[in-house]
Design goal:
This protein is α/β, with parallel strands linked by helices. The chain has one domain (about 5-160): 3-Layer(aba) Sandwich (Rossmann fold), CATH 3.40.50.300. It is built from 6 helices and 6 strands. It has helices at about 15-30, 45-55, 80-100, 110-115, 120-130, 145-150; strands spanning about 5-10, 35-40, 60-65, 105, 135-140, 155. A 6-stranded parallel sheet has the order 3-2-4-5-1-6, sandwiched between helices. Helix 2 links the parallel strand 2 and strand 3. The longest helix is centred in the middle third of the chain and has 20 residues, at about 80-100. The protein is globular.
């Protein structure tokens, strides 16, 4: 790519991760090199299983890393959760500084910020440090006005109706 932009997928509706992973699929098809750093999650998520399968086939094209304990952060994050998030942030900075990837996805970056694992300034720093050819995508509810203003494309997923309110639990392959 000659020019990369900053995209944010935010809002309280379903589909932020799904949109980012759709972009991963498109980028793989185009032969782009991709890095996905996923905050707050660890382990057995369907999207990670699928990406791991792609990573085995497209070894030189896609890298996926998770920076979380696998538990939902309630209240203040533990020291371990914060340390994992900070290590992930440092890794994403290194990836952006090298400029070897065409697409870098900061999955749940906004939520990591809301949980005080990383800061708004950290996310702004990622935007500043990306090389001109790199497409940077930040997902997660809670994008701040400063992040939205700095980004080139912002999509808000707005919940109108969701079956969770009817008691439906997250389903494997659909929500998890």
């Amino acid at each position: 790519m000659k020019k990369g932009y900053v995209q944010i997928y935010t809002g309280n509706g379903k589909g932020k991760t799904t949109a980012a992973l759709g972009l991963v699929l498109r980028a793989l098809g185009a032969g782009l090199k991709i890095f996905v750093g996923q905050f707050l999650k660890h382990g057995d998520y369907s999207e990670i299983k699928a990406l791991d399968r792609y990573a085995k086939i497209y070894k030189d094209q896609i890298t996926i890393e998770q920076y979380g304990s696998g538990r939902f952060v309630k209240g203040k994050p533990t020291k371990d959760e914060k340390a994992q998030g900070q290590a992930g942030y440092s890794k994403i900075l290194q990836i952006l500084d090298k400029g070897e990837h065409d697409l870098v996805i900061v999955e749940e970056g906004n939520v990591a910020m809301m949980c005080d694992i990383i800061t708004e300034n950290d996310l702004l720093e990622l935007m500043e440090r990306k090389k001109d050819h790199v497409e940077l995508v930040i997902t997660g509810r809670g994008a701040t006005e400063r992040l939205i203003k700095k980004a080139d494309l912002v999509t808000e997923m707005k919940e109108i109706k969701h079956y969770f309110s009817e008691g439906v639990k997250a389903r494997t392959g659909i929500e998890k």
